[in-house]
Predict the 3D structure of the following.
Amino acid sequence: MRTWKFGDNIDTDAIIPGRYLVYNDPAVLASHAFEGTRNDFAKGVTPGDIIIGGRNFGCGSSREHAPLALAGAGIRYVVAASFARIFYRNAVNVGLLPLVCPESEAIPDGEECSVDLETRVITCRGRTYPFEPVPDFLLRIADAGGLIAFARNLERVETCTGSQQ
């Protein structure tokens, strides 16, 4: 997984410019992700790559287009020292997993890194960077592909078992 590093206060307009908000297709949004901020991203990103941010990643408007563009690009993890609260929740809602890593600024750009959810570390160039625990229910939502997929799965389970929660 290759890293794509960004700094502090990356707002949702930097992730997906406002002129593309007329689209809801993740693939279309992905083709314009970080346009005007880091133009090599959309053409160079591959599924499984990792976004590395600084403090307050995803600040700005509350729209889901920004995390949807990243999910459409095949991003699974967004690592940052801190997140704007609404971006964090919207990321989980579309199947991304935001990881709070106080040392994110030390993670190098363009390197192959791995994420171990069990030990809660990112490993890159032989160095480890710990991240905060992710609540199990958020892991289940992200693993399901987002909140809607998670809810659909719950409905199927309830229908099959006859239980209601």
Notes: Residues 144 and 150 are 5 Å apart (CA to CA).
